[in-house]
Prior knowledge:
Layout: E1 15-16, E2 20-26, E3 33-43, E4 47-52, E5 61-68, E6 71-84, E7 90-97, H1 101-111
Antiparallel strand pairs: 1-3, 2-3, 2-5, 3-4, 4-7, 5-6, 6-7
Amino acid sequence: MLKKPNKERRKYPRIESIILTAFNYFDQKEYERRQGIARTLNISGNGILIESGCPFNLHSILEITLSLGENHITLSGEVRRAEINETGHYLLGITFINTTPETQKYLLDFIS
Length: 112
């Protein structure tokens, strides 16, 4: 029996992109604060995959600033995937949360 090709299930397609990404992290009780930069591996209208030197637990909330051309946008995101790659860096799959319609439109216009 022949298999049907997998249908894309994502609402927004991912594009490979290298974008300067800065992050801020505050744990729920603000015992810990971390700031840093990361490398964006791919981005879509509702999430981002970054490579970071810092580990994060699943469900951590990050404030992410993306440099898109000459503009910067800041989004909040939840870590939904976390793993270590072969170079010892952390790959973090982050879903954007509480995104305003204006920011969402700007992001979608930039990546399309």
